[in-house]
Amino acid sequence: VALILLASSLAVGVALALSVSTDHDPNYDFTQVKTFHAKIGTSWGNPLSEPRVVTAVEQQLTSKGWTKADEGTADAEVILHGSTKQQQSLDTFYTGMGGGWGWGGWGTVGMGTATTTTYTYTEGTLLIDIFDAKSKQLIFRASGTDTLSEKTEKNQQKLTKALNKMFYDFPPKPAKEKKKK
After folding, report:
1. Are 133 and 82 contacting, i.e. CB atoms less than 8 angstroms apart?
2. How far from the centroid of its chain's Cα atoms is residue 145's Cα?
3. pTM for this structure?
4. DSSP states of 72-120 as a string?
5. Percent above pLDDT 90 for the chain
6. Which of 47, 85, 149, 172 could form a Cys-Cys staple with 24, CB 3.0–4.6 A?
7. Are 96 and 115 in contact (CB under 8 A)?
């Protein structure tokens, strides 16, 4: 029984791991960007977490050398889009199997019992778009998806982990510099 519970938690844990992706315009010169302005583009309906997420993104960008500025004077516009949705995961475990192959296929002899559990969870997605403020051209996009916790502290930890992955190699190097490595 303990093994079944362990297998169940491992299966759910693997299925719900953090997923992060990034993309950028390889021809854009990010060295020309010195200032940015960040705001919510699509609300996810949580007026407590939204300002926290904006602040966390601003901290990531300032740690990379960019400076926060007013919307009308910034070199880059950072737009945050969020969403949440309910998801379900099904896990089936068989116990007491004693048979093998039978006329009807595997497990028909001594099948035992099957237990299926449904796990409902909330999945959150954050999309970060960075535009050149003058040309309105999209220059960088990052997205992260993970399960959300009922605990604010855990969600903050997940956000920090996701943002660290999103901005790991930020700002992107020009295509010419990458080829030299």
Report:
1. no
2. 3
3. 0.75
4. TT-SEEEEEEEEEEEEEEEEEEEE-----EETTEET-SS--EEEEEEEE
5. 60
6. 172
7. no
Residues 6+ apart with CB under 8 A from 21: 142, 143, 144
Among the listed residues 150, 99, 98, the one whose alpha carbon sits nearest the alpha carbon of residue 124: 150
Q: Which long-range contacts (CB under 8 A, 24 or more apart) does 162-170 make?
A: 162/18, 162/20, 162/126, 163/56, 163/57, 163/60, 164/60, 165/18, 165/20, 166/20, 166/22, 166/60, 166/128, 166/142, 167/60, 167/61, 167/64, 167/142, 169/22, 170/60, 170/64, 170/140
Concatenated DSSP letters of 14-47: HHT--EEEEEE-TT--GGG--EEEEEEEE--S-T
Residue segments in the chain with a per-residue pLDDT below the cut of 50: 1-15, 103, 181
Instruction: Provide the residue type at 136 as one letter.
Output: K
